[in-house]
Amino acid sequence: MPLLVMKFGGTSVANIDRIRRAAKRVGVEVAKGYDVIVIVSAMAGRTNELVGWVDEISPLYDAREYDAVVSSGEAVTAGLMALTLQEMDIPARSWQGWQVPLKTNSSHSAARIEEIPTDNINAKFGEGMQVAVVAGFQGVSPEGRITTLGRGGSDTTAVAFAAAFGAERCDIYTDVDGVYTTDPRITDKARKLDKIAFEEMLELASLGAKVLQTRSVELAMRYNVRLRVLSSFEEQSDDAGTLVCAEEEIMESNVVNGIAYSRDEAKMTLISVADRPGIAAAIFGPLSNAGVNVDMIIQNISEEGRTDMTFSCPVDQVARAEKALKGAKEKGEINFHDLVADTNVAKVSAVGIGMRSQSGVAAKMFQTLRDEGINIKVISTSEIKISVLIDRKYMELAVQSLHDAFELDKSA
Ligand code: ASP
Ligand code: MG
């Protein structure tokens, strides 16, 4: 039997009515002759509530107990979904992560999947079960304790199951109807993409287009799992949503396929550091040890043996970065005249695999920003992405004007 993985996010299982609606979608696929593995999230808002309770009791919580508590949201929806399907006369059974067992490492609250044995579930399919409903987000450690995969982790559960069971496709049902060229709240010209390449999706996901957990896209790319993102609130059709797939499946595409943004960035500059071998290591080592996620980096040319070093990081990590750098200065590991933080910046990025073969994208991006009078503070590029740091107050304007300049409202 061909097999499909269908994942329903929190809003799609937010109450009994919606669980029934989701179950109907599953019924449609079963009727087409598929065996289905359904991955469910917790009801919308439930995980936040559980995390809140843990924090209230124990701010410095034991991560094993955190996992025991927060995994419970998915335990409930898995059972309810199986019951709903049974009421529709579809043979269904629920599985908790440990029952599969979805084996992870011991990094509680951010566990990595190590293995998903398929024999238990396949044996049940062999006995006539048509739908296996699996609680997303959770697994079991080598010590036999419940683990969770990090917030948004049921996307990753879904992709991992699709890879392990060789599913034809992995459908991710959510509250948006696909992946857009940019955030539709910023410009109503944003267009839903029919297809997007894994690599582009990865850039968009990590740049703050919060449709899919970044890890799930990495996994999908590694195992070539075709992912379809679609809404559980709209009528189903075979070409609904956005297909996230290998580049080779996409015939024509725009040079730039998406404009992403990340609002809460900060830019930090170390003024006048000694320019000597090892200085970058001496600066970024302590930052990394302090858990600061450094993104863009620029080192100025030096004058008389001294230089300025600038980097960006999420705005809520500025205090941590300052502490780490001042600590390193006190220990004599680095030496700088001043440390300046600009906490009013945002990052805007143009993403597209077409950039590999087409030049002039950067120039066009910079001209567009110039025409709007927007000053660029930091630039970084990768093979398929150009990012700039600008004043946060111009972020929307930058996204709108770039979306226009690259004509993203029109398909290739
Ligand atoms: N319920 C978990 C969360 O809210 C996992 C998920 O839904 O993906 O993060
Ligand atoms: Mg999610």
From TrEMBL:
GO CC terms of this entry: cytosol
Positions bound to substrate: 47, 74
EC number per UniProt: 2.7.2.4
Name of one Pfam family that matches: ACT
Segments forming a coiled coil: none
A Gene Ontology molecular function term of the record: ATP binding
Highest taxon of source: Bacteria
Segments forming domain ACT: 268-348, 350-412
Residues involved in ATP binding: 7-10, 174-175, 180, 185, 210-211
Statement: the UniProt record of this protein carries the keyword ATP-binding: yes
The entry's keywords: Amino-acid biosynthesis, ATP-binding, Kinase, Lysine biosynthesis, Nucleotide-binding, Transferase
InterPro entries per UniProt: AceGlu_kinase-like_sf, ACT-like_dom_sf, ACT_Aspartokinase, ACT_dom, AKii-LysC-BS, Asp/Glu/Uridylate_kinase, Asp_kin_monofn, Asp_kinase
Main EC class the enzyme belongs to: transferase
Catalytic function, reaction form: L-aspartate + ATP = 4-phospho-L-aspartate + ADP
Protein's pathway: Amino-acid biosynthesis; L-methionine biosynthesis via de novo pathway; L-homoserine from L-aspartate: step 1/3; Amino-acid biosynthesis; L-lysine biosynthesis via DAP pathway; (S)-tetrahydrodipicolinate from L-aspartate: step 1/4; Amino-acid biosynthesis; L-threonine biosynthesis; L-threonine from L-aspartate: step 1/5
GO BP term, example: threonine biosynthetic process
Family stated for the protein in its record: Belongs to the aspartokinase family.
Protein name from the UniProt record: Aspartokinase
Native source organism of the sequence: Roseovarius atlanticus
Organism lineage: Bacteria, Pseudomonadati, Pseudomonadota, Alphaproteobacteria, Rhodobacterales
